[in-house]
Every structure is written in structure tokens, then in C-alpha cells.
Amino acid sequence: MRAVVMRETGDPDVLHLEDVDPPEPDEGELLIDVRAIAVNPIEWKLRRGLVPRELPAVLGSDVSGTVAESRADGFDAGDEVFGLASGAYAEQAVAPAARVARLPAGLTHEQAAAIPVAGLTAWQALFDRARLKAGQTALIAGAAGGVGHFAVQFCSHAGARAIGVGSGANRDFVMGLGASEYVDYASQDVGQAVSGVDMAFDAVGGETTSRLVPTIRAGGMLVTIAAAPPEQAASERGVRAELLVMSPDAGQLAHIGELVAGGEVRVEISYELALADVQRAHELSESGHTRGKIVLKP
After folding, report:
1. This model's pTM is above 0.85
2. What letters, b where the CB count within 10 A reaches 16 and e where it falls short, cover 162-181?
3. Within 13 Å of residue 65, how many CA atoms lie on the same side as its CB?
4. What is the CB neighbour count within 10 angstroms for residue 53?
5. CA 214 to CA 241: how far, in whole Å?
6. Which of 94, 139, 225, 273 has the most CB atoms around it within 10 Å of its CB?
């Protein structure tokens, strides 16, 4: 089969499409014929060596496809599934059965591949960590991105109010997802434009993380996925600040898939590229300016 192999860290040109032996599933795992793969920021960080990884490696985790071989109860060859796999930048990948869900009717493989990392991260930040409830308000930094565009819609689904933060070019897009307000970070200071939110969700990092703290009411919460939480500044304001690392959850994954299949949540796919164009996909992802998700197709 063909897979994108990384033998050294560096620029996108270290990613090469090669012929390799197919992976073999262990007990409790599925071998999946890959139909679509989504690109996540962690993958260009791994490629650059910002996050340690044993080499050579095949990157990628978000996958949708057909079960080629099942060594797990509850799944058979031919089942359509999506979830979190190992080495997803390939024509075949292995996934633990506990990390996948069945593809709902009406959900395309491209849509499904875009859900796992981004969808689960947004869901867990809002509901598992911040315990967001109907009537509350969430401030979403990076609202047009892969994680952020799910978070805005999940707020609306839960009856909560979402305020998006991003570039001016994405205002209409984010408002169209259900945000009630929008802050253009290039022309507005979010700390002055917004106050009293119940939680802030940082999917950007850098200076953005600390700038969100003044927007949160006492007793509220800051959840970040992109930087160390500013614990001292948060504590001085009476705010909790936590770093979220997404946990695979097949039940949540299935629920989000049903929301997308039913039209209640939209998946924004900015680019669909061939697996052979993986270098271009990484360039786009690393730019930090793409809406929604980038999907690769073997």
C-alpha cells in the first residue's frame, strides 16, 4: 500500500508518499481501508520536531473508511466507520475499536474524517471541563478554525450563547454558524470588547491565552488547548484555567456524527486534496488561516 512516510523532521518536503507493507491489527483493533483523512495542527508540529516522535513515522489520526479486517467484537469487515487511527496518512490504517464509531447514514467519509480530533476537543472543552449550560455564554478564540467552528455550533446546540474571536475576513462565516457576537482581533481588544462570559475557550495560543482572562466572570473558566494556562492571572481574577488534552470517546464521537448527519452541525472543509498533495496540506495547516478542516483522500 501507499503511505506518507516521515524519516526526518523539518519542512513539508520531509513527507514522502512511499510503498510500504500494510499494518496488521492486533486483538481489539480494526484494519481500515482509508477513504478520507483530516489534517490536524499536531501533525505539522510533529513534522517540525516540536513534539517528540520516533522515526520513521506515518502521521495522522483522523480517519474514515471501510473495515477491511476486524479483530474486535462488534465490528465486521465491510462496516463503514470513522474515528482515531494510528498512521492515518495511508491507504490502510489500524484503529482500536474503542476509538471508532459507525458511520451514520447521510454522513460522507470526508465529513466524518473531519470530526474526531476537532469535534471531540470542542465537545470536551465546553461540556466535560467547563460544564457549559443553556443560557450561559462562551467566548471562542479561533472560532473559524477546525476546533473553533465546532465549538460555536455546539454552543448553539446546547442553548448557550457563543461569541467568536477571529480575523475580520471570517466574521460572516462565524456568525453564520450561530455566534451572537464577533470580535475582530486585528481591530479590537477582546479584553475590552467582552466581559462577564461564563467560559473562554482558547484554540489559538500565544498572547491570546492571557488576553482572554479579563473577559471571564469570577467563578468562570478558561480552557486552552494551545498554550500553558495562565494560572496566576486566572487565580487573581477568581477564574479556573486548565489545559485540555482530548480523550478518545467513541460514544461522544457517535453523537457528534449523528448531529452532523442530521444537519444540526455543519462540517466546514476548506480543502480536499489527494494524499500525494500532503506537503501542500501541511503548508496550509501551518499557515493558521484556513477555515474548518483540510481533508486528504488516498
Report:
1. yes
2. bbbbbeeebbebbbebbbee
3. 29
4. 15
5. 12
6. 139
Task: Please state, in angstroms and rounded to a whole number, the distance separating the CA atoms of residues 116 and 178.
Answer: 21
Residue 81 CA, chain-centre distance (Å), reads 18
Q: What is the pLDDT of residue 288?
A: 84
> Would you list the domain boundaries of the chain?
2-114+267-297, 122-243
Q: Which fold has domain 122-243?
A: Rossmann fold (3.40.50)
Tens of pLDDT, residues 12-42:
999 999 999 999 999 999 999 999 999 999 9
* CATH code of the domain occupying 2-114+267-297: 3.90.180.10
User: Whose grid coordinates read 494524499?
Assistant: 275
The three cell numbers locating residue 26: 492486533
Place of cell 495522522: 60
Q: Which residue is it, cell 491507504?
A: 91
Give the integer Cα–Cα distance in Å for 146 and 119.
Answer: 8
